[in-house]
Structure formats: structure tokens, C-alpha cells
Amino acid sequence: MNPLAARDPRTALVLFSGGQDSTTCLAWALERFRRVETVGFDYGQHHLIEMDCRLTVREELRAQFPHWADRLGDDHVLDLGLIGQLSDTALTAEREIEFQANGLPNTFVPGRNLLFLGFAATLAYRRGASVLVGGMCETDYSGYPDCRDNTLKALQVALSLGLATPMTVETPLMFLTKAQTWDLSEQLGGRTLVELIIEHTHTCYLGERGQRHPWGHGCGHCPACELRHKGHAAWLADAG
Question: Does residue 25 have a known ligand-binding role?
């Protein structure tokens, strides 16, 4: 880790869902930036329980990592219910998870990340933040086109031009496998952060929190749970 990174004077706004990836990104930002705020989006998702988990994660980060506490600023929640009205997907409607004719799973919510980042940039502009941090990744992912590096680079240019001020989009997980994301969490906060992620974050598309697996809570069979499970197992195997 770059020892100078934590001295970055800018304010970052983390797109924070309360899941594994966004929690890792939040820790990454807290390690680097002078001030970090978070934003969550309520868009009618079935796994709305993540909105409760995100508050718990913030509290646990403050309590367990006091050197980050002063950097962790305000939280914001934006109502984007319009996405649910526009989308007919397995995340926003009562549908079985399956692949579509275009090769994408029906968990893909068209334009979601584009809208998230657009609204986040508007909030960041008002809050004096110039860095947006998101957990998008094109390595272990379902082929979502709005998670690709080229998409995010193009959007960074558009946001900066449209706001007439530099807006940086940081995606620290972009080229990491899920196993490497678990490893990054350990690098940032040791096993304490790993255990926090296992116990308190939420990934399951079905919104299930009942059963606790070695990798966290969830149904254990939806694509999000399977990816998290396989990544955790691969990380443990690599670790020894």
C-alpha cells in the first residue's frame, strides 16, 4: 500500500450498498482520503435488507477501526424508485433468475450504474467531493456492460465535462477476482475487517439473512451467493 495514499486531501463519495464489494471499497477509501461520505440507493430492489445492513456496517467500521472514524462522514440515501418502475428484472420484479436471449442474466438492471453514478456525481458536487468510488468489477461478474472499465472511464469524462469540474471515478476492484477482493479486505483491515464483512454485509439477491455460512449470510444458491462462496473458498485455499 502506498504510505502517501492516506494523505489525499480530497473528499470521496463511496457508492455504498452494504455488500461485500462496496464495504471493501469503503475501507479502501477510508485508508486514502481525508474525508469519506457514503451514498445508498433505494430502487425497489428485492434485497432491500441491504439498506439496513449498510448502517450496521458503518457503525461497526467506526467502532472497530477508530483510526478511520474521524474520516467517515455523512451518509446519504437517494430514492431511485423510478428504476424499479422502468425495469423488469429479477432484482426488481417477481421473476426467476435466468439468462436472457442477449446472454445477460435478468439480474441486470439496465442503466443502473449509469444512473447511480450520475446522481452520485450531483450529490458529490454539492458536498464538495471530487472522487466517486464504486465496487464495479469486470473480472468476476455476470457480464453487466455498465460494470466494464471502458464504460466507467467514458462516464468519468462525461461527468467531468457536464459538471465543468474534475470528477474522478475510482473502481479499486475492477480487475480483481472475488478471491482477490477477500484478500484486499484482509490487507486493509486484517481478519477483523474480513469477519465484519462476513457477519454484517449483505449480498444475497433473495434478501435472505437467516443462515450464516462461512462466507456470510444468504440463500447460498443465487448467483451472488455462489460467487461470494467460491471467492471465499479460493481465497482460503490461496492463503494456505
Answer: yes
Q: Residue ranges per domain, the chain?
A: 9-239
C-alpha–C-alpha distance, residues 232 and 211, integer Å: 16
The model's pLDDT over 109-146, given as tens digits with 9 standing for 90+, comes to 567 788 899 999 999 999 999 999 999 998 865 567 88
Q: Is 20 annotated as a binding residue?
A: yes
Tell me the CATH architecture of domain 9-239. Answer: 3-Layer(aba) Sandwich (3.40)
The answer to the question of whether 116 is labelled as a binding residue is: no
Q: Is 24 annotated as a binding residue?
A: yes
Residue 23 is assigned to a ligand binding site: yes
Distance CA(77)–CA(84), nearest Å, equals 16
* Residue 160 annotated as part of some ligand binding site: no
pLDDT digits (tens, 9 = 90+) for 76-100: 999 877 766 655 544 444 545 444 4
For residue 137, say whether it is annotated as part of any ligand binding site: no
Q: Which residue has the cell 437517494?
A: 78
